[in-house]
Design a protein that fits this description.
Elements: H1 2-18, E1 32-35, E2 38-39, E3 47-49, E4 52-56, H2 57-63, E5 67-71, E6 76-81, E7 84-89, E8 94-97, E9 100-103, E10 109-111, E11 114-118, H3 119-125, E12 129-133, E13 138-142, E14 153-156, E15 162-165, E16 172-174, H4 177-185, E17 192-193, H5 217-222, E18 227-231, H6 235-244, E19 249-252, H7 257-272, H8 279-296, E20 303-309, E21 314-317, H9 322-329, E22 333-334, E23 347-349, H10 352-358, E24 362-367, H11 371-384, H12 392-395, E25 399-401, H13 404-407, H14 415-426
Helix pairs in contact: 8-14
C-alpha cells in the first residue's frame, strides 16, 4: 500500500510539471506585461480572474494598432485589425471573432471605470505569441512585425517649434522638479533634474544638475541624456548652449494649470503612442477640480487682487498667470481683467490707481525668489502705505499670503492641491 501511494504521488508530480503554468489569482500590482520587450503601462493595473490576466481593452487593442469601438446599448467592445474583428461583451462568456462565436475562460469586467478583457485571448486572435513566466509573474507578448505600430517621437513647443525623433528617448533630464514629477508619475524616471530642496521621495535619488536657468553643462553631459526638457522662458539663453554641446532639447511651457494638463496629454502621445496613458492622471485631477467647483457654485464672485512679489519689485499677476488662471476658474474677478493686457502676459507693473478704483475684496500675495525676505517687504508696505487700509480686503482681514510650496511657478501635479487650497481661501 505504501508503495502504491509513493507511485501515485510521483505520477502527480510529473503530471503537474507537464501542465502549462497559468497565473493564479494574484494582486494586480505583482503582474508585469512586456510588449515586445517593453513594459506596458496601463491606466488601471492588470488583474487575474480564473487564472487569466485581464487588461483595459482600449490600451490592448491600440497597442496592436487596431481600431477600437464601444457599443453602449449592448456593452460590447470591438477591435478591428486588418481583416480580423474581435468583439467581447461585458460579463458574457462568449466572444465573436470574424462572426465566429468562441467560448471564453473568463468574462470581461469593469474595474475603476475601465473595461478589462482577457489579454491572451485578444492578443492571440490578433496574431501575437503570449507567454506566462511564473517566477517573475510576467506576461510576455510578442506582436507580429506587421502589427507593430510605427512610432515617431514628437513634441511641439509653445512657439511652434517641433521636436521629432526616430526613437523614444530613454534618458531624460527635466530642468524643473515639477516637470520631473510629472514624468515620474507616468513611469518615466528622469536621469537628472534641476537643483531643489523640495524633491518628493520618488525623486530623491535623481542627480541634481544646477539651476533651471543655468545648469552645469559638464554634469548634464555626464548623465548622457537623450533629451533635456527645459523651461521655454530660458530658451533664448539655453538653446545655443545645448546645440553647442550636441544636446537634444525640448522647451516646455509649464507655467499654468492648463499647461500641466496639456503636457500630460502630449507626453502620453509622445512617449507611449497614445494620450490614454495619461488619462488616469487627468481624470483624477479633473475629478477633484469638479468637486472644488461644485462646492463654490452659486457663491458671489469676489473681486481679487494678486500681487506677485520679488526682492526687486511688486507686480500684478494677470488672468494668464498660474494663480490668475485658477482664480478665474473659481469665478473670481481679477483687477487686471479691466486693463489692456497682452495675451499670455503673466505679470504687469503694479498700478495703485487701478487698484483703488477696483477696491479688491480679496488680496492674494505671492512671495517669489526669496519668500521670507519678500514676506517682510509685504508686511512693511501694507503697514506704511495708508492706501491699503482703505480697501475692503484689508478692512475685512482678507489679505492672504499664499504658501510658497503650492504657489510657486511651474506647478506640476501639486497644482490640484493649490486649486483646492485657493478655493478655500476665496470661499471660506
Amino acid at each position: 500500500m505504501k508503495k502504491l501511494i509513493v507511485v501515485l504521488m510521483s505520477v502527480a508530480l510529473v503530471v503537474g510539471a507537464l501542465i502549462p503554468l497559468q497565473p493564479q489569482n494574484l494582486e494586480a500590482s505583482t503582474i508585469r506585461i512586456l510588449m515586445d520587450g517593453e513594459p506596458m503601462t496601463l491606466e488601471v493595473p492588470p488583474v487575474v480572474r480564473a487564472g487569466r490576466v485581464l487588461v483595459p481593452f482600449r490600451a490592448l487593442f491600440e497597442a496592436f494598432g487596431a481600431t477600437v469601438g464601444w457599443t453602449a446599448a449592448t456593452e460590447t467592445v470591438t477591435g478591428q485589425l486588418g481583416t480580423t474583428t474581435v468583439s467581447l461583451r461585458l460579463n458574457r462568456p462568449e466572444a465573436v471573432v470574424n462572426e465566429r462565436t468562441v467560448r471564453l475562460d473568463v468574462v470581461p469586467v469593469v474595474l475603476n471605470g475601465r473595461t478589462l478583457v482577457p489579454l491572451r485571448f485578444v492578443a492571440e486572435n490578433l496574431g501575437a505569441d503570449v507567454r506566462w513566466e511564473e517566477r517573475t509573474q510576467t506576461v510576455t507578448v510578442v506582436r507580429p512585425v506587421a502589427t507593430r505600430p510605427a512610432h515617431v517621437f514628437r513634441l511641439v513647443e509653445a512657439d511652434g517649434t517641433e521636436l521629432v525623433l526616430a526613437e523614444i528617448p530613454r534618458r531624460v533630464v527635466a530642468l524643473s522638479v515639477n516637470t520631473a514629477g510629472v514624468l515620474a508619475s507616468m513611469g518615466i524616471m528622469p536621469v537628472g533634474m534641476a537643483n531643489t530642496t523640495r524633491a518628493p521621495h520618488t525623486l530623491r535619488d535623481v542627480p541634481q544638475l544646477g539651476s533651471p536657468m543655468s545648469p552645469d553643462i559638464e554634469r548634464l553631459r555626464a548623465v548622457r541624456p537623450d533629451l533635456v526638457i527645459a523651461n521655454i522662458l530660458f530658451k533664448p539663453r539655453l538653446a545655443p548652449i545645448f546645440r553647442q554641446h550636441g544636446l537634444t532639447a525640448y522647451f516646455i511651457d509649464n507655467q499654468r494649470y492648463s499647461d500641466v494638463i496639456a503636457n500630460l496629454e502630449m507626453f502620453g502621445r509622445a512617449f507611449f503612442n497614445n494620450s490614454n496613458h495619461a488619462q488616469a492622471l487627468i481624470d483624477h485631477i479633473r475629478g477633484r477640480e469638479r468637486a472644488a467647483l461644485a462646492a463654490v457654485q452659486g457663491r458671489p464672485q469676489p473681486r481679487v487682487l494678486i500681487i506677485f512679489g520679488t526682492p526687486q519689485a511688486f507686480m500684478l499677476s494677470t488672468q494668464y498667470s498660474y494663480v490668475g488662471e485658477m482664480v478665474k476658474m473659481l469665478g473670481g474677478r481679477n483687477v487686471t481683467e479691466g486693463m489692456t493686457v497682452a495675451r499670455h502676459t503673466q505679470q504687469i507693473p503694479l498700478s495703485m490707481e487701478n487698484i483703488i478704483t477696483f477696491n479688491p475684496e480679496i488680496i492674494l500675495r505671492i512671495s517669489h525668489g526669496s519668500p521670507e525676505q519678500v514676506a517682510r517687504m509685504f508686511a512693511a508696505e501694507f503697514a506704511q502705505n495708508p492706501v491699503w487700509g482703505r480697501m475692503d480686503a484689508v478692512r475685512n482681514g482678507r489679505v492672504i499670503d499664499l504658501p510658497p510650496a503650492l504657489f510657486m511657478s511651474n506647478p506640476g501635479l501639486p497644482m490640484i492641491d493649490a486649486f483646492e487650497a485657493l478655493a478655500r481661501f476665496m470661499y471660506p
